[in-house]
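Study both lines:
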Amino acid sequence: MRRAMQRPVVGLAAALASLVFLLGLTLVSAPVRGQTSVQSGGQTAPQRPAQQPPAHKELMAEDVYKNIQVLRGIPENQFLATMGFFSASIGESCEFCHDDESSWAGYAKDNAHKQTARKMILMMNAINQSYFGGSRKLTCYSCHRGTDLPKVTPILAEQYSAPIVEDPDVITEQAPGESSADQILDKYVQALGGAQRLAAITSFIAKGTYQGYAEIDKSPIEIIAKAPGQRATTIHTSNGDWTTTFDGLSGWVAEPGRPVPLLELTDQFLEAVKVDADLAFPGRIKQALSQWRVGYPTTINDREVEVVQGSSGGNFPVKLYFDKESGLLVRQVRYTNSPVGLNPTQIDYADYRDVSGVKMPFRWTTTWTDGRSATELSQIQANAPIDAGKFAKPAAPASSKPASW
């Protein structure tokens, strides 16, 4: 296990963990404003159709955090994901670069590691611009691969070992000879109980526990959803409630202790909660995503799975892994964009149980670049009456900022 995964997730990492979870663990990604989005391998992702600009000024990283020098001009909500990318790339946790975690202001203090990181970002951008026409061919992970110092000498044991076959980030074309996306998705719908039973469930209230990485205690969690396209999640922590809501058009995140305690979601994060709300009712899974294509089968826990990829809004893909025998969804992998590379998030589903004739997962584990969380449900009430106000803009948390901010 990497050093970064052996240390408690505190401070900035904890904020990143909670932000990612509360956003429904972002399913898609949008390019940085004013830039072309580039998929792994240098392929340009299709741009989403033009939308109405948000009614409010979008907060940039430098509007919220102190001492931002190289990463100026990126949305605040992309900034923490960028920190996670650094953590995954060098195999270190937050305190490697932030030696004062007493407050958000403490994170802003300079040291040698932060100064080196800024130089590395500039070097990486210069290489991509000079040799690859600005395409993102090189990232921090390209050289570091989970260590703080890149390896410069070949390791013979690795050279003569069986190669590690990694799933490509993007399925660029339908794999020949494999089932169609329609066939796999139809099998999934049937495995859950069939289209008629799925359509009969128009709302649900789920309760259980949420446990973040390195947390000893579990926190109560409540998830409510209503078709079409409304969803809200609340985690009841000792510091107050962490809440995300989506009313079908707009979304918000309220979290105590963050510099922006109540954040209106835009762009990739708004689209993320929309997709989560749509997929809460999988009878409409074909309509929730588009540009479906099938990749080559792989294995998860020694079981063969079929891989289907879709996209939302023309952004980075969502990859779904279905058990070939049962037809059930066992894994989801999606990506978020940052100025330095794509951040993967993986969700593994388990413990499917019958709820009003429909199978629903009661346990899932979420893994991303800076941590891991486990959600276990104890009950799901189907077709429960839900007040529309549950999906509205939540109240700002009472403790909005650290005392020293």
Notes: The two ends are 34 Å apart (CA to CA). Residues 1-54, 400-405 have pLDDT under 50 and may be disordered. DSSP finds twelve helices and 14 strands in the chain.
